Amino acid sequence: MTAKAFYLQLALVTLIAAATAFGINTFPQFADVQPIAWISLGIFVLLSVVMYYAGRKAAFSDNKHDFTNVSLGVTIGKIFIAILFILGYNQLMQPDSRFFIIPFFLMYLIYTIFETYIMMKLGRLNTPTDQKE
């Protein structure tokens, strides 16, 4: 998968995530937590870019376990970041309701599906011609 193809797909997924954020922010229950959807969207875009380049490098590594290690590291890292984000937001902002979790986990779900798809594509790369961008 070329970087161009990755960024085009990332743009499409981000457009879907932004439409989801706009849609959920129209409900009054989410009026106070609108920024969390946008902040989490930005975080997951950055994580997707990091995941792509780490996964791409690992896919062509001489060590056959590097790709598995990167995949596992990305998964555990995202879970850890998600927990820290939720706990940090809850502690700092002390929201009146727990509705703030819904926009965050919608973004988490969208980008996790996307990253799984990308990692599956990267896992199939194994020839020097696949490395061309």
TrEMBL record:
The chain crosses the membrane at residues 37-55, 67-87, 99-118. The keyword Membrane applies. Keywords: Membrane, Transmembrane, Transmembrane helix. It comes from the Bacteria. This is Uncharacterized protein. It comes from Phaeodactylibacter xiamenensis. The lineage of its organism: Bacteria, Pseudomonadati, Bacteroidota, Saprospiria, Saprospirales.
